[in-house]
Amino acid sequence: MSLSNYIKELLSVEEYSFSLPELIENSDKSESALKRELSYLVSKGEIIPLRKSFYLIIPPRYSKHRKLPVELYLDKLFRLLGKDYYLGLYSAAKFHGAGHQQIQRDYIITETPYLLNIKKDTIDLRFFTTSNWPKKNIINRKADSGIFKISDPLLTSVDLIHYQTKLGGLNRMMAILEELMEEISESNLKDLLTWYPNKSTLQRFGFLMEEFHADPDLISILYNYLRSIKYYPVLLSPKSNQKPGAVDNKWKVAVNIKMESDI
């Protein structure tokens, strides 16, 4: 089977990516001949080599932007890598209806060890690594190519707050966080509190929930949880050369930035 025919076969079943070993297994051509065909189709822009031995198929409807929606290949990529993942941060917020800004980058949370970011033409994947893999709060969503994993609205929110210094700062995400809070359920919160390890992030989140007048029942659940454990003053926006000092709110959060939304 030629590479072109193999691609047509994949597209007929809504598959938008493949690995070199898969291609070799499904073709009667030599590896060197297939690599020549790959180089030719790459030069035409019909496929993109995303990373070693993993290729994206760019069908006509996506050829103008030379980019595939990340949900069409993410699960297959991570099955090949043998790593857990979920689509998170601004990318997940967009799926939950809180994507105010047109993001050109896709954000993925993975388990350790660290993965290098991928920047290829119009494709921009940024990986964040955590050693505290979520035990809950990851959900499956359906794409044309199958299932992909994504953080629920609550995990999306706390991840944004946790990684704020690497994402342009808290003010960039204020409007997104406010909208995400409308999507959070009591079960989301109770699930998160069974495993989530970052107390300071929960304090910041609780403080912002009150600022945004979120559901009082959710605020009570989170505050009662924090009261049951020891927690200490933190800065709303972490800064290595600054300490929180005295705080005047129940979350023990020192407001060290002028709070204003970028939107």
Give the helix/strand layout.
Blueprint: H1 3-12, E1 17-19, H2 20-25, H3 31-43, E2 47-51, E3 54-57, H4 74-81, E4 85-87, H5 89-95, E5 106-111, E6 118-120, E7 123-130, E8 138-143, E9 146-151, H6 153-162, H7 170-181, H8 186-193, H9 199-211, H10 216-227, E10 234-235, E11 253-254
Parallel strand pairs: 5-7, 10-11
Antiparallel strand pairs: 1-3, 2-3, 4-5, 6-7, 8-9
Helix pairs in contact: 5-6, 6-7, 6-9, 8-10, 9-10
Number of domains: 2
Instruction: State the major sheet.
Output: 4 strands, mixed
* SS content category: alpha+beta
Report the helical percentage: 25-40%
Beta-strand content estimate: 15-25%
Explain what this protein looks like in three dimensions:
The chain has 263 residues and is α+β, with helices and mostly antiparallel strands. It folds into two domains: 3-62; 70-254, 2-Layer Sandwich (Beta Polymerase, domain 2). The protein is built from ten helices and eleven strands. It has a four-stranded mixed sheet with strand order 4-5-7-6. Strand 8 and strand 9 form a beta hairpin. It is elongated and about 70 Å long. 30% of the residues are buried. The model has no long low-confidence stretch (mean pLDDT 92).
